From TrEMBL:
Name of this chain's protein: chitinase
Domain GH18: 177-553
Chain spans, region Disordered: 439-461
Gene Ontology MF terms: chitin binding; endochitinase activity
EC number in record: 3.2.1.14
Family, as annotated: Belongs to the glycosyl hydrolase 18 family. Chitinase class V subfamily.
Subcellular location, principal: secreted
The keyword Hydrolase belongs to this UniProt entry's keyword annotation: yes
GO cellular component, one term: extracellular region
Organism: Ophiocordyceps camponoti-floridani
Amino acid sequence: MLSLSLRPEIGCLKLGYLKLAIHRRTNREAFYGGRPICQEMRPYKSALQAAPLNLHPLATSIIGLGSDDIQTRPGYVFQAAPTITGIECHLITGTCGPPGPPPTFPPPMPTGLGMPMAALDWLTAGKPGRRFMLPREPATVMVNTFRVTSSEMRFKSCLVVAGLLALEASGAATSSPVTVGYYPTWKRQHMTNVDFSMYTHINVGFAVPRQDGSLSFDGDSFLSQLVSDFHGKGAKALISVGGWTGSNLFSGIAKNSAATDTLIRSIIDYVKKYNLDGVDIDWEYPGRLGNTCNVFDAQKDSPNFLALLQKLRQQLDATFGARKKLITLAVRVEPFDGPSGPMTDVSAFAKVVDWISLMAYDINGAWADTTGPNAPFKSEKGKGQQLSFVSAIDSWCKAKWPTSQMVAGFAFYGRSTQAMQDMTRDAKNQYQPQSKVVPLGDKEDASWADPCSGSSSNSGTWQWKHLRDQGVLNSPATAKSPWVRQWDPTSQTPWLFNSQTKTFISYDDPQSLEIKIKYAASKGLAGAMVWSMEMDTPDHELLKVVKQWPGNRQSR
């Protein structure tokens, strides 16, 4: 039995899911299982979950699931042979007849919640199979061709998600969640122990836009070899444009048509010259201040960015073929900003972008008044920034971005700060007063000069590999004296404290990563992103956890 689980991308709104099982041998036996999503549907739960459905012999594909009248017409709508207009089969009785009126009247209109994509999970012989993303319609995955859409249906006062699925061929799925790694060019000498084959996509950064839209990139001399190395290991290669210190001119470029055209030409030239698989744009941030010298326009940045991306998609498709090259974005934990704050509808961006990578880290740090988690799973009410891994997914979902086009971002580093008191006296509280002086981080840390202000400071960064090899952690879950490890049950993250130096470190470890990965997978996200590849141990202690994404057969 092959079990195909269709979770429309609006499942992030907790509306439920649909499941369809197709018999491998005959392809003519199916079971429908649904989870009731509002009070009115609960009486029909057992009938829906128990009802077998024998497919009509002429039915070649399923084009509709569900009904707004679950008592009288809880049916599938089938598209049959070309000479047959259609067949409708009753869900409970299994009887089939001519198609009736549409399941909803009037027919549901397309909305931002109904993007043409879905996340699919295969189970074979009861064992987890591979999960893959269908980014557009139609999509071909080896021997399988699927056409997937979503729509809304109303059942009394309840919003019902109806998944529309056409299954044209059967077989085993062959793709896995994406694993995206960032390759900072200035860390090239530290990449010797990185196994590129463990990544599906590698973003090399950063190319920095000049005022006229042309690109400055310090990796020109070795990019060809990198791309060849990545491709040889089965990973796709993208060039990442922008970054924290490279985003100061995006706003001006996006509002200037000539500069926009130059930027797009420059990106296409790089893709051509170096045989790249796409571009990753890391504008930090549209509509709000990132680095202190950045220029931004709260009114126009986001619409200008959309126009730029639409034009970039159009020209990439014209040059290389429709959707042959990727456009990905690195984004903050809230949607792009408009005049009134984060946008409430970013669905237009999703139509031209393959996925966004949620940078759900750097949430608390030395810039705050208190210590706190660098990358909390959940925030604690009234303490620290009220942003988190969970809130990031929810915020983008509510702004109508499909979860199947989201990639969860993970930090392979921690941040250290200087506490004002001995935090072990209140070991259950990781939010305690801290100094503005940033302590030196691991052995690679050094005083860093801000290109905007010119002021210098330590970064306070501790890469995971150095937490392990500099004697801070004896094992992934145990600290070496004088360090003490604590676990925060709300943020679901560990933290370390050294009473001798009053140094606090917040970071992610295998335990906290596993919690986030399971949550992201349950929400239908497309995979994981890592900043950055060289920060893991030589034996990939953290990446191995990331690769255990549910349904990923490429885990190792």
